[in-house]
TrEMBL record, chains A, B, C, D:
Belongs to the chorismate synthase family. NADP(+) binds at R46, K51. Its cofactor is FMNH2. Pathway: Metabolic intermediate biosynthesis; chorismate biosynthesis; chorismate from D-erythrose 4-phosphate and phosphoenolpyruvate: step 7/7. This is Chorismate synthase. PROSITE patterns: CHORISMATE_SYNTHASE_2 (PS00788). The keyword Metal-binding does not apply. Reduced FMN (FMNH(2)). Homotetramer. Pfam families: Chorismate_synt. The gene is aroC. FMN binds at H123, F124, S125, G258, K273, P274, T275, S276, S277, R300.
Length: 330, 330, 330, 330
């Protein structure tokens, strides 16, 4: 299904070149504040414009279609639209025969039997992440509203771009090479209650990774020590419990044991692949000629999509936490 | 919830020291063969006994409680039990004050308010993976029964143990150090149809990782080039389409684009943390004394749980594929 | 949750006095025709205007926000909006202290802690049934597209209004009494495949009644002989199988045995309570004065909401059948 | 799916002539008491033996396979088995060509392509209702444990048997006619909190009827005034609110308005069709001869299955209430 969550359920919809993209949220408790201004900061963080990001500009003011009254959630299904103000009607019909490398063009065509909206990636467009960010804002509000302890903080940081921890340097590499680059982003959540998640199929790692891989371009995730654990001894990896509140001496588990949050910081990292639309010439099959031919991307694009991922990563993490807290707390 | 799948739905249950562990499967098509002998090979592969694994022995003959008639699935809910023949009744009550490092003891106690079955890890025990393996056998049968193309093959391989690609060497390291080690396991699936998965929340990566993190001790997953993508340029990472059947020149995407399988081999790797029960002395909080005290594991355990993971990894992968094929094919 | 269906999943949203009501549909197969004109007939049937119905007029032209391209479903989530053109901004704030008898005012206030949109019934408004009707149109198209046998026909008929089988007479009773009346509506589906539904929890009766009670004002449902079965002998009620295609001599089962469709016409009847907004003076508690006081409905309303139910009943029935056919057929 | 509930999820399994029938429950809170003795009363109420019921006797002592430790729920998935001690191995193979009128034999054969367990009705057997009764006992315990107000009481009463309110008289009718009879059963729940249920698709009526139609032989349900509402005026049917706690003067709504419980008694009635296995000769198609032939039921059966329904009806009602309370309360 194209939705996520059990008690806080998010469905996103829309296409790159449609009139709107949007989100339908089921399970937002009544009374949560829903002023458009509350969404501005996170939506701004997602916006392009910085070095290495695409210049496509959208106003991205949330339009509340349902579930909001007097700037508060009513408890009924919540629908938010974002206008697509900047859709240039390109000559997409011609490009159909040439699936862009790294993009969903080929699989979309196959999966939807040729009925897909192929303009600008259609439903597969990164444009839909604005709807995810909006859902994240709502989720953060819910977390704050139902949390009984210290304020739960969700923070994402870029660790690496193009293999460099100096982000500017990584971007410059892409500019110099006239190519695109990827990166690694870390998310940390503190003050999370103990006990979120289930022993097997709905382990905290299961639910988080499920949500995280809905972000386009993410190709890997690791919790705590992650892949480095493969080279550690058990005595090194195990975190010694040192406090009755769950605090451990180290945090190689990334805050999750047996699928359940253990009271330490939740820590995980994701890898974001290089932007598929690279300025460099590539190759792909032209289905009309039947030949593998050179391919060049038209227009300007993000050199590094990872730059825009942090706020989206926080959003899906918040969605997970809100849902697990609603399920667990009672 | 403690179940997985939409049309092929698997629920596992049981405890380490209960009479049985088992699995309830909803959505197994009528007519699928269900002879106990069909389960023997995969169950054997999961069994302990080899170097580096625990000597606990179970017969593990599947007992069909429902949904099977004349050695065929009836289409009604399928229940399979496995007898726990080898449960030694240890002095678990005393050990409760001392949560084992790396285990779920502490979180289980908190999450279930002290009512958890604490004997041998209770419901969190790796013992339940025999139920997952059984579900995997059923899933493989379904895949074969509904597949219309070449035989879909699901194969897991251990890539590294204790940081060594020579597995024996990695194990020897653990033995020499009197410690436990982790490892990296790869799963490959060939002949998968194009079009499994959804664009965002139920991307193929989302569903697979959801299932994979239900395996105890898994702490990371990466698809195709995975974390290495963070150091690649876009022109390197993009896979050039070279054939109308979806074949690409390289497979850095690991067989998934835009969340959808693209006709190439599905390839992903997971990291398995070192076995939590290590022979080495560790530390943990004694809740009775209130002190952090030295802790030693009693009895014998797997030195490297990763050794037993391949068949379990294949099982959850088969569960995902069976479910996605049932959903997608129609 | 505020959605229905497993593979064909419908979520409706909106409020009586919001800008739009709408529907989000997940699982509509790609290629299904989606011209606005295709919706006209059913939407017209739902419209007020006839004798006994409210004069509120809406244009009700579906606006496709997502999932449609070149008048065909793309396979991505489908969103349809309907503009609320006729929302008079009444003095609703004042009326809050006086919950209307038979309406959801009181429960909405309690359930949503006073944050409900109380204008014109808010989210509880019958206005949202236009979104259900739209989902029904989509469902009928899917049924036609995946059906392999004779055309499946879904038809609702009003059997009784105000206790009279002569509908005009029943309405006249309401007009004469200056009161509202209810009715009984029957739904019949022919050419349904054998085998839809599950033995227990998702019996065909379970799923159908689940959907049917989402229609406001429905207070009962019966299949085949229904409540009359309580006075029959088994030898009378049992339907003798007379043909290998499943045809039975009688159809007291209403086309369902053991929870599964049996190849005969699906037949069920529902009761629609009298319109809650009756012209007659009633009583209710004024929460400001604390007194039970006389209450009179302002404005004009449907005298008999049952008149508008048939097309909505067909819609939810089509939703069920589309979903069950997608699940069962494979 | 063959399961019910969102947070309190019940799956039943088994066949009439298998070794066991059983239930798997996901979402039972840790600490709920689980002594076998707690189940005795309700299981006893379901048992045959009374006038008009079948003499098949089962001990029906619950065997806790998982999720119970020291006679308390652990919070892990709960599995309960009931031994089928009384399965006579009849000559079922021969009877396959002759589907019993009123039973699921024909649809089971079609739906499951001939792989169904046909012995004694297989999975469709009323025998599985013992598993539902067990789930109901658990549900009642949960309701009591999470309820904050007066004790919620769930009580079913037989209103009519064979068209007679004097139940003995109705049964005698069946005995005299050598036929089977049906009946009407009412369920009442008091002290239910206000606010359970959702406005449309998951209205309280939707969820209750969904659960209720999982009981074999139920063919209709009505809430409050039910079908009688079709003959009432709005001013008669509307219940005047007379107290701030939600109490209304009358209860024609049966305790539900706008799909939401309103603080009055929940009241609904169901019709149970006459037992399909009637002593009277009937007709059915013999698939071997291709002829419609006389058919006689072998062995002894319930003359009136409605007699055993009350405790099952309470069970499914308790399942619904437990689930809705877990969802709503927070």
């Amino acid at each position: 299904m194209n939705s996520f969550g059990r008690l806080f359920r998010v469905s996103i919809f829309g296409e790159s070149h449609g009139d709107f993209v949007g989100v339908n949220i089921d399970g937002c408790p009544a009374g949560i504040g829903m002023a458009a201004a509350d969404f501005a900061e996170d939506i701004e963080r997602r916006k392009p414009g910085a070095k290495g990001t695409t210049p496509r500009k959208e106003d991205d003011i949330p339009q509340f279609i349902s579930g909001v009254f007097n700037e508060k959630a009513t408890g009924a299904p919540l629908t938010i639209l974002f206008k697509n103000s900047n859709t240039r009607s390109g000559d997409y019909e011609k490009q159909r025969a040439v699936p862009r490398p790294g993009h969903a063009d080929f699989v979309a065509h196959k999966k939807f039997n040729g009925f897909e909206d192929y303009r600008g990636g259609g439903h597969f467009s990164g444009r839909l992440t604005v709807a995810i960010v909006a859902a994240g804002v709502v989720a953060k509000k819910i977390i704050e509203s139902i949390s009984t302890g210290n304020k739960i903080g969700i923070h994402s940081t870029i660790l690496e771009i193009g293999g460099e921890t100096d982000i500017e340097k990584g971007l410059q590499k892409a500019i110099d090479e006239k190519d695109s680059v990827g990166g690694i982003v870390e998310c940390r959540v503190n003050n999370l209650p103990i006990g979120l998640g289930e022993p097997f199929f709905d382990s905290a790692e299961s639910i988080i990774s499920h949500a995280v891989f809905s972000i386009p371009a993410v190709k890997g995730i690791e919790f705590g020590a992650g892949f480095a654990a493969a080279k550690m001894f058990g005595s090194q990896h195990n975190d010694a419990l040192i406090n009755a509140d769950g605090t451990t001496k180290t945090n190689n588990a990334g805050g999750i044991l047996g699928g359940i949050t253990n009271g330490n910081d939740l820590v995980f990292r994701i890898v974001v692949k290089p932007t598929s639309s690279t300025p460099k010439e590539q190759q792909t099959l032209n289905s009309e000629t039947g030949n593998v031919e050179p391919f060049s991307v038209k227009g300007r694009h993000d050199l590094c999509i990872a730059l825009r991922v942090p706020v989206i990563l926080e959003a899906v993490t918040a969605m997970v936490i809100a849902d697990l807290m609603l399920i667990t707390k009672k």
